Model the fold of this input.
Amino acid sequence: MTIAMPLPDGATIARRDAIVAALRDIVPGEGVIDDPIAMRAYDCDGLTAYRQTPLVVALPETTAQVSAILRWCFDNGVKVVPRGSGTSLSGGALPMADAVLVVMSKFDRVLDVDYGDRVAVVQPGVTNLAVTRAVEEAGFYYAPDPSSQIACSIGGNVAENAGGVHCLKYGLTTNNVLGAEIVLMDGEVLRIGGRQLDPAGLDLIGVVVGSEGLLGMVTEVTVRILPKPETARALLIGFATIEDAGRCVADVIAAGIIPAGMELMDRPAIHAAEAFVRVGYPLDVEALLIVEVDGPPAECDHLIAEIDTIAVASGAVSCRASQDEGERLGFWAGRKAAFPAAGRLSPDYICMDGTIPRRRLPEVLNRIGEMSVRYGLRVANVFHAGDGNLHPLIMYDAEIDGQLEAAEAFGSDILRLCVEVGGVLSGEHGIGIEKRDLMPVMFSETDLMHQQRLKCAFDPALLLNPGKVFPQLHRCAELGRMHVHRGQVPFPDLPRF
Amino acid sequence: MDVLHPASADDVADMVASAAARGERLTIRGGGSKDGVGAPSETAVLDMALLSGVIDYDPAELVLTVGAATPLAEVRALLAGSGQMLAFDPFDHGPLFGKPSGKATIGGVLAAGVAGSQRLSMGGGRDHLLGFTAVSGRGELFVAGAKVVKNVTGYDLPKLAVNSWGRLFAMTQVTLKVVPAPRARVTWVAEGLDFADAQRLMAAAMGSTAEVAAAAYLPGRRRALLRVQGFGPSVEARGQMLAALGLRPGNDGECDALRTLAPLPLDRPLWRINAPPSAAPAMMAGLSGDWLADWAGGLVWLASDQPAGEVRAAAEAAGGHAMLVRGPEAMRRAVAALHPPAAGVAALEARIAAAFDPAGVFASPRMTGAVA
Ligand SMILES: Cc1cc2nc3c(=O)[nH]c(=O)nc-3n(C[C@H](O)[C@H](O)[C@H](O)COP(=O)(O)OP(=O)(O)OC[C@H]3O[C@@H](n4cnc5c(N)ncnc54)[C@H](O)[C@@H]3O)c2cc1C
Ligand SMILES: Cc1cc2nc3c(=O)[nH]c(=O)nc-3n(C[C@H](O)[C@H](O)[C@H](O)COP(=O)(O)OP(=O)(O)OC[C@H]3O[C@@H](n4cnc5c(N)ncnc54)[C@H](O)[C@@H]3O)c2cc1C
Done:
């Protein structure tokens, strides 16, 4: 394991009993867990290669309790790690030996639904899918649909700015959240955003979304809900080369069509998925594209015909349009099973998450193929083709010495490549600890310091979720100084962890 | 009043650094189309005009990178040439202040949080600014966000740029997500409605599968205007859903009122009120003046002589906020342009401003009323 966390503070660990007692004064009954065995349920998130038993776990039920916990920790210099459902793939919710893990799962109520203004007010522990369940009878849904939607929480979605296969047309979490109640590390409770579209001043909710639990604890969220489209239809299109598939995607968009979803799988991913769920994917193609359109039947029929024409023109070797709901879901079944399918081929896998300009896709997949040979590890690629978000699944066996390290190095090389071609380290899974040390590949020291100063405005003592996202901890007092020379690395002597 | 004309991002950095070192303030200007907003400024002006021009545009990627002072009109013309548009539908506000149109810049539009009627269905500038380079009040050039449409790497600083009113940093380059322009659009009309009925009708349409792109109410004509757009067969099918709600096809030109605000008198203070749509009719019952409503009722443009305190109290009671867009100089000296936030939020905003601009080079009392 190659990612180091800040060294735990022995003095805090030595005060554990007092900390537990103080938390029990705030959260009564079973809301504080300090039994090491019981705490094991919380020792990792979706990045399971990294585990750490927390100092103590608190499960508050009210904003007042969250505020009191943070205030007490602030006064006593104790770190806090927020956690929703623990499905993060980047280690954002990884506990620390010297930090209180604050788990938001008891914040599980839908507080208000207003169909006139098309908003729902929910507590952060409500799962993503439960928001849709709460409004679907009235014909509405919550648009962002991460594959983990039955488990992941809205609070976690806000923290990670989660996306899904439909975010090309309907946006990520950030485009579907209007307001929130947050608690700052010093216990102050703030309402940011609201039910209206625009903020009065700075877009604070905009910057809290995607902040990976570093700026504040989210205790309530106001989301937009949308009327469910009348129908959806999909096309399953096979190509002899990745280049042809890439051209088809570009031509669909050039034709003015923004599909509800547009997903690409390469040969290893197609074969893995087909072996797992047997949905009738063609096995003689190099690339398989699923394009979904939604809206009134007249729109779907029109667009299906247009996309079919474009597909043929770009050299598709097979093209099938769904004729009914069962067939459409069948097209998706393989894609949705891509992760477990990779899990069946290999004891372990890691899922990468870079974004690239789409036009660079063939080149990037070729180079990933070369790396796969070099590292001796298999890789299957699924790709949110519409927005350029690549999910290479790197398969390895943790039992074999050195394979985890090789897989991590392979993953890092892929992300460096994404940045090199003009893309980014993460399209939707977040930086967490997983990509933390790669941040300087994308951002200069000056860029990173501008981001870290934002943290100082919210959490000047750096107690909330430390060790995540940023490869270097700068004290806020140091960050606040004005520098005479631009571009100079200011603190060469600070430890990197 | 001094005007500085940086020709490059490095010039901007040098000018800001030396202003910071001397303890001076600078006001960032794009096209200057909103110089009339807020208390009159007595600082030197950092005129971004030379940082203009297209840097990269690949229609198939849906991404556009331009110099921050590129005129809005130029951006729109470029996109239109490839059948694309800015989804947030910004429009030029020169005429609101009795100035010619055509001067607004893309950076100014973003910093002013400007968005048109389509904001209702397609999002605002916040939803389409992917990345930027800027010079902070420290005189340092930095990069934020990215040049691809999907990115969660680091804090989403582009969100802070939109509606920042030049208070944090001077953007030198911006990268925007662009979208295909609709092939067809039809405006549907319902007549003889008071605001409450119109708001309910607009909410019903927004809650239907008609995918309404824009919805406005003109009180003078007691009319609701609802626009559907997209591919021909779809626009037709969705139009029939509006017909079922009692609307009839109208004249697309009527929507221009929401861009020019022509029905509103120029000689009265102009407010921009953002509130939850369902609360807007009751709010407007307590306010006097001429007004128009956009965003299904969620945005009200109000030209009124009513005291600022009353306008803001009404907006707050509705769960919203009111910005003073235009007013006589004496009023702008006394009334902050931006709706004053709650104390905790105001303190956080001040800490964020100080994080980017510790010396207060860009501090803008004319917007916040915060500095004497
Ligand atoms: C099988 C699988 C498929 C996935 N598919 C997708 C996908 O399609 N798209 C996608 O975007 N992601 C996907 N993910 C990743 C993950 O589900 C998302 O990142 C999700 O948003 C995490 O939510 P959570 O409730 O599990 O958060 P956690 O894992 O508990 O926490 C994630 C981060 O949020 C912070 N946090 C949690 N709650 C709060 C709160 N209330 N206040 C402040 N900070 C908080 C934590 O500190 C941590 O940094 C997938 C994960 C798995 C395991
Ligand atoms: C109060 C108000 C509300 C408005 N609402 C709308 C609306 O709803 N819809 C609409 O279409 N138009 C609206 N407008 C018009 C809008 O202001 C102008 O279209 C836009 O500001 C024009 O850009 P400009 O280049 O002239 O900006 P300027 O007037 O020069 O500047 C606008 C603001 O942005 C800052 N700024 C300018 N350039 C930069 C930069 N490069 N980096 C950082 N900050 C910068 C300035 O400091 C100033 O605070 C509104 C205008 C005002 C004054």
Notes: Chain B has a mean pLDDT of 93. Chain B touches chain A through 92 residues (CB under 8 Å).
